[in-house]
UniProtKB/TrEMBL annotation:
Pfam families to which the protein is assigned, alphabetical: Usp (PF00582)
Organism of this sequence: Halomonas flagellata
Family recorded in the similarity comment: Belongs to the universal stress protein A family.
Listed InterPro entries: Universal_stress_UspA (IPR006015), UspA (IPR006016)
Protein name (record): Universal stress protein
Superkingdom of the source species: Bacteria
Domain UspA as annotated: residue spans: 1-158, 214-284
Length: 284
């Protein structure tokens, strides 16, 4: 199966949002939906020096017990994963998806997604995973690693689903964001959704020309589109525009050629990803 929407779920509070946004995307794209749960069987308990004054035999006995506990944890984790996948499948069916599939794999999430990359049209992930710190502005380490590794669009979603009604693309004229505009124009995911194009920078002839191209591309494809050139710091300017226009889905290039290029490897867009409470579609 190729060109599917794949949703990575775990035991985090974001899993319900992942399920609902994945179902929405699957229906809009008319693409198959697969829920993925990865069981990381790497031992969670470090092998400390347990010999001390209790004797080598006792140390070996304790290590055997730890190994048994790790095996039991792995079995529990697999069963929990199967129950989560079953619940996700039932939720997607309630959302209208005909035959969502489920897959459970052992390993790490990043390695698993790398193996499955050729099958993925769109990956849906929560902002944080179940092992992440629960501070509201923490960005899950898995998300950062996945974005660096995968060359597929990634939809990072909040806890609660809301049908997108206004979409904004952060545009800098780079190859990635130009492809993003073309994708946004053609993709059924955005049918009927007004599109906003925002350039953060000076009001120059080049920026105006880039904006005009983007708006024409969207309007020629039948979209309602408007745009703006905003001066100032990138994150602040984008968040201000988002608030002013009730934007409920952001589209950003993971790597570009301007200040926006620092996504996940610099401070500006990482901070924005941490603070926004709307889904963000990351493009490579």
């Amino acid at each position: 199966m190729t060109d599917q929407v794949m949703a990575a779920i775990d035991g985090s509070q974001f899993s319900e949002g992942v399920c609902d946004y994945a179902a929405w995307a699957s229906l809009a794209l008319e693409a198959p939906l697969t829920f993925l749960h990865v069981v990381d069987n790497h031992p969670q308990t470090a092998e400390a020096d347990l010999s001390g004054n209790i004797g080598l035999g006792s140390r070996e006995h304790l290590l055997e017990e730890l190994a048994t506990l790790d095996e039991q944890r792995a079995k529990v984790a697999q069963e929990q994963g199967r129950l989560m996948l079953k619940a996700a499948r039932e939720r997607a069916i309630e959302d209208g998806v005909a035959e969502p599939a489920t897959r459970q794999r052992n390993g790490t999430l990043v390695e698993t997604l790398e193996e499955l990359e050729s099958e993925i049209r769109l990956l849906v992930m929560g902002k944080r995973g179940e092992t992440a710190h629960q501070a509201s502005e923490h960005l899950g380490s898995n998300l950062e690693r996945v974005v660096r590794t995968l060359h597929r669009p990634i939809l990072m979603v909040p806890e609660t689903f809301k049908t997108p009604e206004q979409v904004m693309i952060a545009f800098d004229g780079s190859k990635t964001t130009r492809k993003g505009v073309e994708m946004l124009a053609k993709s059924p995911l955005f049918n009927g959704i007004p599109c906003h194009v925002v350039i953060v920078g000076a009001e120059t002839g080049d920026n105006r020309s880039q904006l005009d191209w983007a708006l024409k591309t969207l309007r020629d494809a039948g979209h309602e589109a408007e745009g703006a050139i905003r001066a100032g710091e990138v994150e602040e300017a984008l968040r201000t525009y988002q608030a002013e226009h009730d934007i409920d889905l952001l589209v950003m290039g993971a790597y570009g050629h301007s200040r926006i290029r620092h996504l996940l490897v610099g401070s500006t867009t990482t901070a924005m990803l941490r603070r926004v409470n709307v889904p963000v579609l990351l493009l490579r």
